[in-house]
Amino acid sequence: MSKEVNDIKKTALYEIHLKHGARMVSFAGWKMPVQYESIIKEHEAVRSYAGIFDISHMGEFLLEGKDVIEFLQYIMINDLKLLEPSKGQYSCMCYENGTVVDDLVYYEENPERFRMIVNAANIEKDFQWLTDHLEEFDVKITNLSMKRSRIAFQGPKADENLQSLVDVDLSQINRFYFAHCNIQSNPIFIARTGYTGERGFEISFENEFAEKIWNSLLNTGAIPAGLGARDSLRLEACYSLYGHEISNSITPVEAGLSWLVKPKEGIDYIGKEVLMKQKSEGTKRTIVGLNLVDKGIIREHYKIFKNGNNIGYVTSGGYSPTLKKTIGLGLVEKQHSEIGTKIEIEIRNKLLGGEIVTTPFYRNV
Amino acid sequence: MDYEFPDGLKYATTHEWIRIENSIATVGITDYAQHQFGDIVFVELPEVGMVFEKGSNAAEIESVKAVGDLIMPLSGEIIGVNQNLADTPELVNSSPFVDGWMIKLAFSHASEIDELLSVDKYKQIIQNEEH
Question: If you count Cβ atoms within 10 Å of the first and of the last residue's Cβ in chain B, which end, N or C, has fewer?
Fold first, then answer.
């Protein structure tokens, strides 16, 4: 057996996935369900009703200490002045050159205690990055990733289905806010956040409650959904995925996330100089929505052409079960990024006709 | 996992099935193969009249998650393609051995038929892949 096989991690819900007949794949060092019965059915269930996703592969850190806010103001590009206790914020932490270490959400439990959820593939890198920048800050970082499990409960019926299980009024939790409560006496952290373009929640809890909570959620009629549907849903909603639309070679401004880059007067945060300059002067490249006029499926890495010149590449592509056609996102030269621009996408050595279109393709939040 | 393995067909190690009638072979992908792909959303078929060697890619099959090939199980000329797949590629999932057929070909080397697998041999290969 190879080293990778030996080291592969399993979530607390691994056995349950097998019982549901999931097809398991390796993803960011984890064995995860890519689909149960059908990606399209799971996708449609989330758009029309509700789906549950095991997202325990994602990282969860706790940051505690009297300098947490000051530390995060230094390391994050978004402005924590917009935050308050019981609220979360989407942000990126960037390198000095403006490219991205990771995109993430942190939640303010109180001014000296923050919970942070990061991408599975970046857990070690992020933990190291945060630790390396602690310097004089009075902050303690704890990696809770392996101790706790996480589930996303997403879909137009998420509120209704979940309300009967929890001892908190979900209508009082606005988008990006969170609460601590119980699902049938099992303590959870619950936030109104998600990555599907639907209403819904993300919850986090100790591993020991994982099976009980999963089964309670399943009993509401929600459909288990895998990484395949998670990706097709987020692509329709045009949420950036690390390693695709943002990465250590693409900045948030290039990715259309300029709104995350805040002036934060008097705070010299990492990446500020480059990002504020890009925000005011523009960038040479930008992420755009892609539509294929000819028949085919757009896939990551395919080259994009305009009048025979390579102007960029596809960062994410696939089939949209909601729109019943192929959709994609691509990084192209700014001068060719206008909506309606005719382009060609190279698929298996053939140039197929396409067009730059408005994004998102679908969102219902 | 239980898959369909119809009798009376030949199979290829690359998960195509082949129905030989007179000197014409009808080719599609097996039930096992369609399960591996998951929801198939696009099939790019060759044009009638194209000639392929055994082992070359005759069609591209795209599911939500993956891209794969239909490998020519026999050398020959394409004499027909399943036009229905243009608008309903999901036929490959719902009916891999009947409505989801992909190409008809006039094979050029009848001797290549002997190299194809019987249903029992093919079942064995699947059992080994599953374990």
Answer: C
